[in-house]
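Section 5: illustrative case.
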């Protein structure tokens, strides 16, 4: 039985490798490139779209073994149409202590959730690999529902900066109060009024 830990991993400027050169591998590569990863793709054939993206292509023709290709990588993705080969990638990754995602396998130790991303805000939704489309649907729905709060986010960041030096309990209390009762004010971005409200909350005059 799998119990997944939701975890944010910084892959910026990190080496990752994808085994497979088809459309699934291409989607994974684009996602990782968008996060600033250095992406290596190992396959004996590549879909033509790989020529249009900035990855290091490694031909798989017996020249390299899996262990050599995994060396120096923080993440491996097995996305070939050969299930046996994918499992070999998983096993070797495990021996080397490297995180590995095996596509189309509920036995994968690492899975890619559906993601809603807006600036700093990242919301990941997972069905533990069982219903990927449902996860995508939920992530999209959540993004629509929280839109008013996303609009308040820039002002709330400034509020947090103003609260530097204030004890953590009071910080939390002020932000919670404003999100619950002054959402429209935060969304307006009118800083003088927002600052006045923060001062009132700090002095107990709200």
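Designed sequence:
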């Amino acid at each position: 039985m799998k119990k997944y830990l939701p975890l944010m991993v910084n892959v910026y400027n990190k080496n990752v490798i994808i085994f497979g050169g088809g459309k699934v591998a291409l989607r994974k590569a684009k996602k990782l490139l968008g996060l600033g990863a250095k992406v290596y793709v190992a396959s004996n054939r590549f879909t033509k779209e790989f020529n249009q993206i900035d990855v290091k292509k490694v031909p798989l023709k017996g020249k390299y073994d899996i262990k050599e290709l995994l060396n120096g990588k923080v993440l491996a993705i097995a996305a070939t149409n050969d299930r046996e080969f994918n499992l070999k990638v998983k096993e070797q990754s495990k021996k080397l202590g490297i995180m590995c995602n095996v596509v189309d396998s509920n036995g994968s130790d690492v899975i890619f959730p559906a993601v809603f991303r807006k600036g700093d805000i990242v919301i990941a939704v997972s069905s533990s690999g069982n219903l990927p489309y449902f996860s995508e649907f939920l992530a999209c729905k959540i993004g629509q529902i929280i839109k008013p709060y996303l609009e308040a986010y820039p002002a709330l960041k400034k509020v947090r900066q103003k609260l530097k030096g204030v004890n953590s309990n009071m910080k939390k209390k002020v932000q919670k109060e404003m999100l619950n009762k002054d959402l429209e004010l935060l969304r307006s971005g009118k800083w003088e009024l927002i600052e006045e409200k923060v001062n009132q909350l700090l002095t107990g005059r709200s």
